Amino acid sequence: MIDNIWEKGDRFLKKIQAAIDKYDVGAELSGVAPMFFITFKKDETGAYKDKRTDFYTQLIRKGFFFTPHHHAYISYSHAEADLDKTVQAVEESMAYLQDKYKR
């Protein structure tokens, strides 16, 4: 069971990282396969705080509650389809940020 969570989490984090890499919004992924965290690089303007708030608000609007100040987790019961929907929500939220915070 634990191996399943780690394998699933590894695939999931690779997809999350690909979504983050697609958009230049200062997002960073940290953590390990079953426990991850998405945050934003600090900048001199403090916009990272607004990006963080906007990103997590967008996720909530899409039906995914992740706290902006703590790791998120996956479990054995998460199906690949669930994780793929999560990746899609992360990608859409990153696209929202890129559009809102154009340089």
Explain this structure to me?
The chain has 103 residues and is an alpha+beta fold. The protein has a single domain (2-100), classed as Aspartate Aminotransferase, domain 1. Helices cover 55% and strands 14% of the residues. The chain has three helices and three strands. It has helices at 2-22, 47-61, 80-100; strands at residues 27-32, 35-40, 72-73. A three-stranded antiparallel sheet has the order 1-2-3. It is elongated. The N and C termini lie far apart (45 Å). The mean pLDDT is 94.
Give the overall shape.
elongated
Number of helices: 3
CATH topology: Aspartate Aminotransferase, domain 1
Report the CATH architecture: Alpha-Beta Complex
Strand segment tally: 3
SSE layout and pairings?
Layout: H1 2-22, E1 27-32, E2 35-40, H2 47-61, E3 72-73, H3 80-100
Antiparallel strand pairs: 1-2, 2-3
What's the short story on this structure?
The protein has helices at residues 2-22, 47-61, 80-100, and strands at 27-32, 35-40, 72-73. It has a 3-stranded antiparallel beta sheet. Helices cover 55% and strands 14% of the residues.
Features of the shown structure:
103 residues, 3 strands, Aspartate Aminotransferase, domain 1, alpha+beta, elongated
